[in-house]
Specification:
The protein is of the alpha+beta class. It contains five helices and twelve strands. It has two domains: 30 residues; 181 residues, no CATH class. A hairpin with a 5-residue loop joins strand 9 and strand 10.
């Protein structure tokens, strides 16, 4: 009997060691130790993360000037704002960044800091493929827990370090339930929902979206 328990104790130790090394290996794959910062023209400082061979902002953009210094005005454009700062609610905009209209994304002056740009549809796909494909990448990109995402925040592990937050966007506010991200062509968007692990690819419809920048 004693030998029986000893055998299973050894098995348990081996199992725990495997879990430990798998965790270390996963951290290495997703480059959790490869972090940095970048500053926009307004002086906002953003965390950055290397995922695969790409460097991404780990926070949503909240700049109010284009790269050349031109102001992005809070005016209406085809019945929507050029950008939305959550009606001046700094508690929300500090967390979720700003939402931007298509006009801002397509402007040749560029929203992103020097050396960075709005990702193309192909660059989004490279990111998603590096995280195992669209079925599970959304969960790996979402902030874990329910501090900002609604329950159940399905699959939300943030193992990638991308730290996607539910800033809403589209034709309704949606704060807490989804994140809409622009691609550089202003046509394709990526969507992450609180109740799905996957990340969706869709065509742009009415409303504004969050912006993440990727390094040149």
């Amino acid at each position: 009997m004693k030998g029986y328990h000893s055998f299973f104790s050894i098995i348990k130790i081996i199992f725990n060691m495997e879990i430990f090394f798998i965790s270390i290996f996963a951290s290495h794959i997703y480059c959790q130790d490869s972090t940095g910062t970048v500053k926009d023209i307004d002086g906002n400082l953003y965390k950055t993360i290397k995922i695969g061979n790409q460097w991404w902002m780990a926070e949503n953009l909240k700049v109010t000037h284009f790269r050349n210094g031109q102001s992005i005005k809070l005016v209406r454009y085809f019945n929507q704002l050029i950008y939305d700062d959550y009606s001046g609610d700094s508690a929300l905009s500090d967390i979720y960044g700003y939402l931007y209209a298509e006009q801002c994304v397509l402007d040749k002056q560029c929203l992103c800091p020097l050396g960075w740009h709005i990702p193309s549809d192909d660059e989004w796909q490279i990111l998603i493929d590096s995280l195992g494909g669209s079925l599970y990448a959304g969960g790996k990109m979402k902030e874990a827990g329910n501090s900002h995402w609604k329950i159940p925040n399905r699959g939300g592990s943030n193992i990638s370090g991308f730290n996607a937050l539910p800033g809403g966007g589209g034709s309704n506010d949606g704060v807490g339930s989804h994140a809409y991200f622009w691609s550089s062509d202003g046509k394709i968007i990526r969507i992450i929902y609180f109740d799905y692990e996957r990340i969706f690819r869709a065509y742009h419809s009415y409303g504004m979206k969050s912006v993440r920048c990727v390094k040149d």
